[in-house]
């Protein structure tokens, strides 16, 4: 018996540099269901900025969505996490879906932007890899249970950024 399941294409399978419209549609529909928790993570996939959003609903069902991203989409997602749905709805209907940016460490770039923002920062216990590497677990709160999570390998640059944030 051969069964084919309809699945969202993975970011690695996407050859063109455009935002996945399935991601946008599912994210907008998910926001309309009023999730109880939203987690946003930034990634770099094939030197292209990307996002992963996990939506958790009242029934404890989780939906995880990933796509390559541009600044317009990221701004719209963050606005939606702050209960402003108009930007993501506008992006859905007539936003620029082209992704022209490249980055080798997009998560670090976004962490630097968030560390200078007004969003509340919460530091969790470090994640320690099986190889002994320590990773900072930082959470920025956008709204109630609407968080941006960062896992960054600790180094001098990360420590300097944290010291700046703690002094502010």
Features:
single chain, 168 residues, alpha+beta, 5 helices, 31% strand, globular
What does this structure look like?
- The protein contains 5 helices and 6 strands.
- The chain is of the alpha+beta class.
- It has a 6-stranded mixed β-sheet with strand order 3-2-1-6-5-4, covered by helices on one side.
- Helix 2 runs antiparallel to helix 3.
- It is globular and about 45 Å long.
- The termini are far apart.
Structural class: alpha+beta
Q: Could you say which overall geometry the principal axes of the C-alpha atoms support?
A: globular
How many domains, as an integer? 1
Could you estimate the helical fraction of the residues in percent? 25-40%
Nearest-integer average pLDDT: 90
In whole angstroms, the N-to-C terminal distance is 62 Å
Strand-residue proportion: 25-35%
Helix count, DSSP H or I runs of 4 or more residues:
5
- What sequence of helices (H) and strands (E) makes up the elements? HEEEHHHEEEH
In short:
By secondary structure, the protein is α+β, with helices and mostly antiparallel strands. The protein has five helices and six strands; from the N terminus they run H-E-E-E-H-H-H-E-E-E-H.
Give the topology:
Elements: H1 21-32, E1 37-45, E2 48-56, E3 62-68, H2 71-81, H3 86-94, H4 106-115, E4 120-128, E5 134-143, E6 146-153, H5 156-167
Parallel strand pairs: 1-6
Antiparallel strand pairs: 1-2, 2-3, 4-5, 5-6
